[in-house]
């Protein structure tokens, strides 16, 4: 079994709002999850570069994932799950393992897995490739899950 993520356990509870219709993602709770300031700007740029519509729902979904996975610490590394034990720990804002990061990194961006924009774009592209479709973005589907991705 192969896992493509890890969790940082110090997440912000307010980013965990959800659980309604639409696959568990409560679109009525979007306002509580949409980031502001520099985080919003970073998420918007990452969504744009990944080719995902910049909407309040997608902004909230990415904010929820990042808060849950890394508490917005771009240098956090998961040293406890199966990926870490196998020598390829998940790291960065979206907690990608190196092979996933390099596969989904956008050419022309920084190749450092800890670079916030590069990690966000790779994580968003991975989520879209694996979970997207059927009228819902991959990040919204991941955000609606009780765990990670």
Topology, element by element:
Layout: H1 30-33, H2 37-50, H3 56-70, H4 82-85, H5 98-104, H6 116-131, H7 138-144
Helix pairs in contact: 2-3, 2-6, 3-7, 5-6, 6-7
Question: Top keywords for this entry?
Answer:
mainly alpha; 7 helices; 149 residues; globular; disordered N terminus; 45% helix
Shape: globular
Order of helices and strands: HHHHHHH
Computed CA radius of gyration, to the nearest angstrom: 14 Å
Strand content: under 5%
- Category from helices, strands and their pairing: mainly alpha
The oligomeric state is: single chain
Instruction: Summarize the main sheet.
Output: none
Number of domains: 1
Low-pLDDT residue spans:
1-29
- Strand segment tally: 0
- Quote the distance from N terminus to C terminus: 14 Å
Explain this structure to me?
This protein has 149 residues and is mostly helical. The protein has one domain (13-22, 34-144). It contains seven helices and no strands. Helix 3 packs across helix 7 and helix 5 (98-104) packs across helix 6 (116-131).
Task: Give a brief rundown of this model.
Helices cover 45% and strands 0% of the residues.
């Amino acid at each position: 079994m192969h896992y493509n993520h890890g969790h940082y356990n110090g997440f912000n509870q307010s980013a965990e709002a959800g659980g309604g219709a639409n696959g568990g993602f409560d679109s009525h709770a979007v306002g509580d999850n949409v980031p502001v300031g520099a985080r919003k700007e970073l998420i918007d740029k990452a969504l744009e570069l990944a080719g995902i519509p910049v909407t309040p729902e997608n902004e909230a979904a990415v904010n929820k994932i990042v808060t849950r996975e890394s508490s917005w610490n771009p240098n956090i590394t998961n040293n406890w799950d199966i990926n870490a034990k196998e020598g390829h720990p998940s790291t960065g804002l979206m907690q990608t393992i190196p092979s996933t990061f390099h596969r989904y990194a956008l050419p022309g961006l920084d190749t450092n897995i800890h670079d916030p924009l590069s990690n966000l774009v790779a994580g968003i592209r991975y989520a879209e490739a694996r979970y997207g479709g059927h009228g819902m973005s991959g990040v919204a589907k991941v955000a609606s899950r009780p765990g990670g991705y």
